[in-house]
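STRUCTURE:
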């Protein structure tokens, strides 16, 4: 059975959601970020970490893609043009969407206080709004970024754009807002949310 290490209030939530999508059993170890016990597994002391047998995989995106590949679901096959487009959306989720949210979050609470520059958040919001316009154009009237098939980048975008709402950043009414609502209405998202909230 898999073991997921990381408080579900963190990016570990993505992996929980993924495991629920796949219907895979897992043990949850809600270790918080920067816990010294992480040092032996991840020198950056970040979560999540997935334990698979005697192996540990770090980074939520790598873990989600690994699980999708291993179980042959929520992904196109490596080496196909569809996979190239899918991976392009994954990179977009990380580079264009997550990076501005994470930088803003760091300058709100994560960095030591003396390193926080509050004005950075305005620039991050500008970047986020730009990413939402780009996503709107790339998504068009498709159900999911790759068409009718829900894949790894949909999970990452659904999680990350939802996270942005905690800073009151939301996509304008339209195809992206509808897409995010659609993705977050999935039963596996509800199951992961219930599991997270039960730990509060
Ligand atoms: N790219 C990594 C980022 C992991 C990450 O930054 N996790 C946060 C919690 S969501 C963390 O552990 N932060 C501790 C720190 O930045 O020191 C991933 O997606 O897993």
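SEQUENCE:
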């Amino acid at each position: 059975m898999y073991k997921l290490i990381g408080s579900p209030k963190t990016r570990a939530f993505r992996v929980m959601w993924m495991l629920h999508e796949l219907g895979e059993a897992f043990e949850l170890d809600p270790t918080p970020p920067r816990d010294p016990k992480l040092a032996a597994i991840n020198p950056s002391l970040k979560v999540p970490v997935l334990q698979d047998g005697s192996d540990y995989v770090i980074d939520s995106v790598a873990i989600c893609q690994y699980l999708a590949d291993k179980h042959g679901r929520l992904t196109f096959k490596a080496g196909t043009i569809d996979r190239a487009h899918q991976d392009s959306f994954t990179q977009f989720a990380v580079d264009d969407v997550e990076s501005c949210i994470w930088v803003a979050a760091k300058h709100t609470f994560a960095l030591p206080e003396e390193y926080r520059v509050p004005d950075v958040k305005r620039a991050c919001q500008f970047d986020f709004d730009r990413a939402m316009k780009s996503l709107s154009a790339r998504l068009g009237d498709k159900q999911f970024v790759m068409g009718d098939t829900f894949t790894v980048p949909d999970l990452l975008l659904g999680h990350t754009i939802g996270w942005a709402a905690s800073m009151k950043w939301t996509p304008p009414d339209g195809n992206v807002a509808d897409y995010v609502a659609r993705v977050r209405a999935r039963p596996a998202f509800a199951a992961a949310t219930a599991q997270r909230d039960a730990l509060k």
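REMARK: DSSP finds seven helices and four strands in the chain.
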